[in-house]
Amino acid sequence: MTSLVTVEHRSGYAVVGLNRPEKKNALNRAARRELLAALTSLRAECRTIVLTGGGDSFCSGVDLKEARADAEAGTAPDPRSDWIEVLIAIREHPAVFIAAVNGLALGGGATLISVCDLAVAAHEAEIGMPEIGFGAYPQFSGPGAQIQLTAKRAAWLVLTAQRIDGRTAEAWGMVNRSVPLAGLMDEADRLAKIVGAFDAAALSESKRALERAWRHTGGLADIAGLAEGDLTFEPARQLTLDGHEQHDSGIKPDGSGRQDLDARPHQRQNDNKRQ
């Protein structure tokens, strides 16, 4: 059986690849579990992790066909593989994460770029938030853009559903560098080696310090909080763009499904107030 997430160990770092290219690397439950397991196994092994996608896509978010099938079947969400758990695992991991954006990064894929510590993108990459076309607000990528980008740039992504390429993402501050696709992994390798040459404890503590500052300006807690009142959309309306699976809110029109999603971010918000 083909692994949905690949791990390649290199000198001083690891490359984690999302491996559902036929689904534009939309992460179903099994893929999220494999990704979480891979990240756990790498906690003590490397100082930097490069996250990229197989085929012509980086990531197109959660697998909405599976989410809709679960909703129709009355299958309860698995809190161990929630999308928020993937985001938290990256933010709380001791390694420095570098997103290598090789192609489509839509909805949840844009969120992955936001939560990685550093990011390089191919000139040819396409980054966007298509949810408005399905009558929805982008649950995590929208608030992430609002926190990290200027108001007008965030509004452009949220309100127009237009994609931006790697060069624009660099100019807007969404990624650190944009390079031709042919040189993307070489650039990610160069950056991983630069960062990985530093002391592991210093890197981990510096990441934690940056995380504390990020939390005080929003972070995952505010991303969830900004989205909380706006996501009463029908998940089935958020399924595809050009036939590809995209990001899912996981929240039903009656508000159910929100508890597991919000519990940990709000706990972190309370922790911030005590600091």
Summary tags:
alpha/beta; 2-enoyl-CoA Hydratase, Chain A, domain 1; 6-stranded mixed sheet; 3-stranded parallel sheet; 11 helices; 11 strands; 44% helix
How would you portray this structure in words?
It contains eleven helices and eleven strands. The chain is α/β, with parallel strands linked by helices and 275 residues long. The chain has a single domain (5-274), classed as 2-enoyl-CoA Hydratase, Chain A, domain 1 (Alpha-Beta Complex). The protein is globular. The model is unreliable at 224-275 (pLDDT under 50).
Strand-residue proportion:
15-25%
Q: Based on DSSP secondary structure assignment, what is the total number of beta strands?
A: 11
What's the CATH architecture name? Answer: Alpha-Beta Complex
What's the CATH first level? Alpha Beta
Class computed from helices, strands and strand pairing: alpha/beta
Record the SSE blueprint.
Layout: E1 5-10, E2 13-18, H1 29-41, E3 48-53, E4 57-59, H2 64-73, H3 83-92, E5 96-101, E6 104-106, H4 108-115, E7 118-122, E8 126-128, H5 141-148, H6 151-160, H7 166-172, E9 177-179, H8 184-196, H9 200-216, H10 219-228, E10 240-241, E11 244-245, H11 259-274
Parallel strand pairs: 2-3, 3-5, 4-6, 5-7, 6-8, 7-9
Antiparallel strand pairs: 1-2, 10-11
